[in-house]
Amino acid sequence: MDIQTHVLTHMQQVLPLAEPLPSPVHGRGTMMSGGDQEPDHYYVGIDVGTGSVRAALVDQRGVLLAFAEQPIKKWEPQFNHHEQSSEDIWAACCRVTKEIVQGIDAHRIRGLGFDATCSLVVLDKEFHPLPVNREGDSSRNIIMWLDHRAVSQVHRINETKHSVLQYVGGVMSVEMQAPKLLWLKENLREICWDKAGHFFDLPDFLSWKATGVTARSLCSLVCKWTYSAEKGWDDSFWKMIGLEDLIGDNYNKIGNLVLPPGASLGSGLIPEAARELGLPSGIAVAASLIDAHAGGLGVIGADVRGHGLTCEGQPVTSRLAVICGTSSCHMGISKDPIFVPGVWGPYFSAMVPGFWLNEGGQSVTGKLIDHMVQSHPAFPELQAKATARCQSIYAYLNSHLDLIKKAQPVGFLTVDLHVWPDFHGNRSPLADLTLKGMVTGLTLSRDLDDLAVLYLATIQAIAFGTRFIIETMEAAGHSLSTLFLCGGLSKNPLFVQMHADITGMPVVLSQEVESVLVGAAILGACASGDFASVQTGESLPETCSVVTDFFLSAFVME
Ligand SMILES: Nc1ncnc2c1ncn2[C@@H]1O[C@H](COP(=O)(O)OP(=O)(O)O)[C@@H](O)[C@H]1O
Ligand SMILES: O=C(CO)[C@H](O)[C@H](O)COP(=O)(O)O
């Protein structure tokens, strides 16, 4: 889609914003073993997003009983370099977990599951943090997923045309781990590469910290490290890109024991981690998931009966889970592998066991909306007015748009203003990290109306990006009918409505807003042995015992 057709479809397809949103339907899916009785088992889910760590206590019926959140540190020492600290993140995990289990009978806690962003954690041979920066600051030992420092490395990797690239949409992303590893070898040889003993995906770092087990999740290795669920590591790839040193020691530094998400790790929670987290030692700890995959697992099997949706009579492969936080991830599953140019995958068993996964994505969505709003001259005025009304800036902007639209549908406020949203490159389906953002239709206006309309145009551009990804997935063989949204942006009704209007698909929101966390708790439930797997049986969702029982869609926008 070039900018011309983008603008055209933009103007043609923006449908009226629906009447006030229907109230959530308060109901719940089939009860699990506990029925209506007092819950006797609890599971803890910990979700490490880009901006914060959250924890939830969930019972065996899938009801979220307690929630806590804590921001985490981020550094941007130079443009396109984004770093974090594994110690800071672990400390935040401990704080939020202690908070959610206060006053709870700890003996009822049966399992713990983690999900996290797919950032790269570097430790030395004694498991101490190593610097990923020229300043030698070892507290910054994580290269974040959105870090784009390894541009030259990923370019060379893609030039090899190695066959593993077929399984990442044909083009490896600079956000994956191989280019970041190569960057470390080429740029920080002495202070980092030569001393490194362990390179972890963040979700696997957390499960190691909790159990002392260095096993990696199939999810991380397949989606970000070129591991094949069927064939394992491909030596020829690592040799071809100049990282043959990782093959030695049987891939010990990047993982040689690989477990499916939800598998129980070692002897469970080790005493030191138990003390720090405020949980009983020895409870089951699960092999982890990447955050988008936990969200996908949390929503894709939702029980939609009674809402008259076409997907009720369709296989689960007609559903697209969209996890919308700092970035948006578009998770579609299939029985057979589907190769979609510019869309990551197909990945076998990386999210739902036994299914192939394709993962489309937009590198910055929440971050882009925040950026557009916060950098506008009218932002201080917006903040003051929202604070005076005790509203979030987004609730304020949404009601402001309702005021200024007058009789016309809100979508038409942007007939003259268009945003191209690739401010941090295009992840899918163009798979071009060099792309930049664009705004057309600017005037000299600097007021709040102008800010509100720019905010709307940004949301619309993101929704068009989702539509572009859906069209590309369908052209390659997916057949999609319904969107299942979760993540921070799904709490914004305008964002959700624009996705329904612009894709022409109904959007289902889970009754439990914190679906990503429930996805993490499902892992803990599975590891505890209380449930046989994250999903059982041949087909979803009918026989998807844990997933279906945990969820009921709350309301639908069409
Ligand atoms: N209630 C809300 N209304 C509008 N936007 C929201 C709301 N809550 C969170 N967001 C937006 O969602 C994004 C963060 O989503 P979140 O899932 O918390 O991100 P991450 O997992 O990447 O840390 C931010 O851009 C934030 O502005
Ligand atoms: O690449 C991803 C998943 O495969 C995500 O974009 C990344 O993990 C960041 O997630 P979030 O936007 O929720 O913080």
Describe the structure.
The protein is 32% helix and 18% strand. The chain has 558 residues and is an alpha/beta fold. The strands form five sheets. It has a seven-stranded mixed beta sheet, with helices on both faces. Strands 1, 2, 3, 5, 11 and 12 form a six-stranded mixed beta sheet that branches. A four-stranded antiparallel beta sheet has the order 4-7-6-8. α15 (493-503) links the parallel β19 and β20 (507-510). α10 (291-300) crosses α16 and α11 (366-374) runs antiparallel to α14. The longest helix is centred in the last third of the chain and has 28 residues, at 448-475. It is globular, with a radius of gyration of 23 Å. It binds adenosine-5'-diphosphate (ADP) and ribulose-5-phosphate. Ribulose-5-phosphate binds next to α10 and β16.
